[in-house]
């Protein structure tokens, strides 16, 4: 029985030291295969975010000359990503690659930027203005709170014919607390790297 797509990455951790690996989490198969028709799957707890990510990647792949389909469209809705479902889709269609992206971890960061200090003056008596006849109380202007989500996601490319891992990368995104911006950022990084590594057929 072949290993499910979603579990291969954990078993491939020992392969990340391949001569073709450029960073931890990166893997490049020796044959440098390129593909023209992708099934795109995003694994996440939130179906809405998953579907948005899949749509974004599909759009970017198509803009670079490839054919691509989002997993949720291939199965017709929010069906969970499962080995048998993926195999059924591959058997019924002409996809030559499966691109899987999983949420590895997220961290919410809050950065506080302090404002400038101001001074409140209190007159000590009724005499004319004099520096030494005032009490000065330093006041801190309200600071600003910037919330940012740091996301780390591994992307993995599998050849459809034998389910072998061909390529992987770990992509990070440090954007404002806006899931749409994170999705756009990660999708663009993944597709650009696929093209750079010549896995998108021209």
Give the helices and strands, then pairings.
Blueprint (H helix, E strand, L loop, with lengths): L4 H7 L15 E2 L8 E7 L3 H17 L3 E4 H5 L7 H10 L4 E6 L2 E9 L3 E7 L10 E7 L3 E16 L5 E12 L2 H18 L6
Parallel strand pairs: 2-3, 2-4
Antiparallel strand pairs: 1-9, 4-8, 5-8, 6-7, 8-9
Helix pairs in contact: 2-5
Q: Distance between termini?
A: 34 Å
CATH topology of the largest domain: Rossmann fold
Any low-confidence stretches, pLDDT <50, length ≥5? 1-22, 128-132
The CATH superfamily of the largest domain turns out to be TolB, N-terminal domain
Q: Please report the total strand number as a whole number.
A: 9
Class inferred from helices and paired strands: alpha+beta
The rough form would be described as: globular
User: What percent of residues adopt helix (DSSP H or I)?
Assistant: 25-40%
Overall pLDDT level: 74
Summarize the structure.
This protein has 202 residues and is α+β, with helices and mostly antiparallel strands. Helices cover 28% and strands 35% of the residues.
If you had to describe this structure to a student in words, what would you say it looks like?
- Helix 2 runs parallel beside helix 5.
- Strands 1, 2, 3, 4, 5, 8 and 9 form a seven-stranded mixed sheet that branches. A two-stranded antiparallel sheet has the order 6-7.
- The chain starts with a helix and ends in a 6-residue tail after the last helix.
- It has two domains: 5-109 and 149-196, Rossmann fold (3-Layer(aba) Sandwich), CATH 3.40.50; 115-144, no CATH class.
- It has five helices and nine strands, in the order H-E-E-H-E-H-H-E-E-E-E-E-E-H.
- The chain is α+β, with helices and mostly antiparallel strands and 202 residues long.
- It is globular and about 40 Å long.
- A hairpin with a 5-residue loop joins strand 8 and strand 9 (165-176).
């Amino acid at each position: 029985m072949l290993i499910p797509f979603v579990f291969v990455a954990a078993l491939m951790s020992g392969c990340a030291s391949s001569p073709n690996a450029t960073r931890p989490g990166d893997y490049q198969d020796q044959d440098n295969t390129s593909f023209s028709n992708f099934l795109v799957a995003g694994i996440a707890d939130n179906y809405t975010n998953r579907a948005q990510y899949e749509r974004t990647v599909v759009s970017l792949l198509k803009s670079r000359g490839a054919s691509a389909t989002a997993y949720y469209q291939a199965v017709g809705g929010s069906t969970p990503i499962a080995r048998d479902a993926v195999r059924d889709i591959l058997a019924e269609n002409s996809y030559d690659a499966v691109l899987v992206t999983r949420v590895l971890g997220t961290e919410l960061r809050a950065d506080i930027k302090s404002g400038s200090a101001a001074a409140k003056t209190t007159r000590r008596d009724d005499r004319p203005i004099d520096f030494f006849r005032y009490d000065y109380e330093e006041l801190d202007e309200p600071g600003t709170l910037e919330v940012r989500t740091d996301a780390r996601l591994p992307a993995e490319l599998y050849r459809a014919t034998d389910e072998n891992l061909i390529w992987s990368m770990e992509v990070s995104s440090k954007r404002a607390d806006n899931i749409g911006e994170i999705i756009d950022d990660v999708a663009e990084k993944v597709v650009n790297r696929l093209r750079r590594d010549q896995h998108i057929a021209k």
